[in-house]
Design brief:
This protein is 34% helix and 23% strand. By secondary structure, it is an alpha/beta fold. The protein has a domain of 132 residues: P-loop containing nucleotide triphosphate hydrolases (Rossmann fold). The strands form two sheets. The chain has a six-stranded mixed β-sheet, with helices on both faces. Strands 2-1-4 form a three-stranded antiparallel β-sheet, covered by helices on one side. It is globular.
Length: 241
């Protein structure tokens, strides 16, 4: 894997000529997790899709640059809110789909290892319609982890999981994505407090950085500093709303 770059987005996005968000300078630290929180509709997913180079309904005026001066094309793994699993493939086929689409051999052993780590080994040969919502989300996470890209963009990646599985998948993602430049869009202050090196609260006017514990991620969910940061984020979200 190539070194993960820092990414800087500067500019504003408008939807039907109305300001969606304004980001004079939003930086994703190289090799670190950055979380983005905020009320629904403020443009979090739009910002993430802009970094991914995907189409949005918004008009963006600004720049998105990588610290190494290279294009981001081909260096991003993206996990959206919908799992987007191919219904005609089984779980293993979905996890290895990226390599197959690029006409490259896939690492079957690694795919099976990732499926084991997300708890889907026994579902490897089942089609997506046979899975629960949480299982589908874990399959989508496994496919994202399989890509081994230096930049990873995650849009509510754990939202469909029960509390125990969510904590386990947070820890797994933190471990397997170590050293990547990660942008996590989430509505969960606890998730941001556990996983982030930096966390930002987004509204239509600005991006405000939130305080986090000095300890490195992934932080224990019952750590007092983590819980304090979570509470402070929730207070800011409520007052912002």
């Amino acid at each position: 894997m190539t070194l993960a770059p820092a990414i800087v987005l500067s500019g504003e996005a408008r939807l039907a000529n109305a300001l969606l968000f304004n980001a004079p300078r939003f930086e994703l630290m190289a090799g670190a997790w950055t979380s983005l929180l905020g009320a629904s509709g403020v443009g979090k997913t739009t910002l993430l899709r802009l970094v991914a180079g995907l189409e949005t309904a918004a008009a963006f005026c600004g720049t998105i640059t990588a610290s190494d001066g290279l294009t981001l094309e081909g260096r991003i793994a993206f996990m959206g809110q919908s799992d987007l699993l191919a219904p005609w493939l089984d779980v293993l086929g979905n996890v290895t789909l990226g390599a197959r689409l690029r006409g490259r051999p896939h690492d079957l052993d690694r795919a099976q290892d990732i499926l084991a780590r997300v708890g889907l080994s026994r579902h490897a040969h089942q089609r997506p319609h046979m899975l629960s919502g949480g299982e589908r989300q874990r399959a989508s996470l496994a496919r994202t982890l399989m890509e081994e890209r230096p930049v990873v963009l995650l849009d509510e990646p754990f939202s469909a999981l029960d509390a125990r599985t969510r904590a386990e998948m947070q820890e797994l993602a933190g471990q397997l994505l170590q050293g990547r430049t990660v942008l996590l869009v989430t509505h969960d202050p606890g998730e941001a407090a556990r996983l982030s090196h930096r966390a930002f609260l987004m509204n239509r006017q600005a991006l405000a950085e939130m305080d986090l514990p000095a300890s490195p991620p992934v932080r224990a969910f019952d750590d007092l500093d983590t819980m304090s940061a979570q509470a402070a984020m929730l207070r800011r979200l409520r007052s912002d709303g």
